[in-house]
Amino acid sequence: MSAKNKLTLSVQYADPRLQESITRPKIRKWVQAALFAPAELTIRFVDAAEGQTLNREYRGKDYATNVLTFAYNEGEEALPDDAPTQADIILCTDVLEKEAAEQKKTVEEHTAHLIVHGVLHAQGYDHMDDEEATEMEGIETEILAELGYADPYAE
Prior knowledge:
Elements: E1 7-13, H1 24-34, E2 39-46, H2 48-59, E3 67-71, E4 85-92, H3 93-102, H4 107-122, H5 130-146
Parallel strand pairs: 1-2, 2-4
Antiparallel strand pairs: 3-4
């Protein structure tokens, strides 16, 4: 997790509600904390309608979810070893705000967690089984602690 990893970052606020509080410098800091290699990423904030459409079209699930990661070079064998991770990370503002309230977290804390989670997915981490989930949650918790946030999985 080195801040030295080259990052090309685009931030899009298709849903502008968090634009004032979840700023580009904060997002860059969170992304860089979770990067293990160079990356070209887009972080896009959307409303429930766009989130639901993307989740339905790409995952076959007809509801808005908190974060979607579209990793474009995951599993590509022909890429050079130094090729940057390329991904779009979509955050649904409606779901994010609702979950933050339910979990008694600030929107900033929850957004930081979801961005770290999405960046790890972009780099090939997953949570399809218990072992993978435990590993990914441990990495997320460590990164968030370094950023000054509480363990998102603590009960």
